[in-house]
Amino acid sequence: MAAKKILLLVGDYVEDYEVMVPFQALLMVGHTVHAVCPDKSAGQTVRTAIHDFEGDQTYSEKPGHLFALNFDFAQVKAQDYDALVIPGGRAPEYLRLNEQVLDLVRAFDQAGKPIAAVCHGAQLLAAAGVLEGRECSAYPACAPEVRLAGGTFIDIPVTQGHVQGNLATAPAWPAHPSWLAGFLGLLGTQITL
Question: Of these four, 32, 102, 112, 126, which has the most CB atoms within 10 Å of its CB?
Fold first, then answer.
């Protein structure tokens, strides 16, 4: 397996586990991962938020960590990457207002490159207009956006991921083992024990 170059698109208040775990896991299996944020450069940080499921009507939110970016957003070109990862949290809500971000998502999709979106990451897929006629899992509160974008919302347990075509999606961080396995499959990554 040749190592792949993956773009990790983040912003302030990205979900802590949804940025930290994939970043480290993808590096661990030998891929290159560029973590970027609009209007920020390598060495700068984004704040993360920890979302948990504690029996309330929605998730709770607690302060997370500072996550260090390792590449400049201004230098990103979709053609330089093999895949895209979009973590959830609150970041996708405002990142979808950035036309450069939406253009990046569209470029990855038009090229048929693997795209992973977890939790609220589906908001970027919907805003970029890439869900028409496609299946997408997400945090349940994003179901209306998936449907309004012409997609089919896949309602699965929080521990499961869903793969269709070049999309690997999941409801939230408890699905990391499932969606990461599906995403690695899309990348052609083989792990032998």
Answer: 126
pLDDT tens digits for range 63-84: 999 999 999 999 999 999 999 9
Q: Which string of DSSP letters, residue by residue, matches 113-166?
A: --EEEEGGGHHHHHHHT--TT-EE---GGGHHHHHHTTPEE----TT--EEETT
For the whole model, what pTM was predicted? 0.97
CA distance to 16, 67, 122, 173, per residue, from 61 (Å): 10, 17, 19, 14
| Domain region containing 159 | 5-187
**Number of domains present in the structure of the chain:** 1
Per-residue model confidence (pLDDT) at position 1: 65
Residues contacting 97, CB < 8 A, separation 6+: none
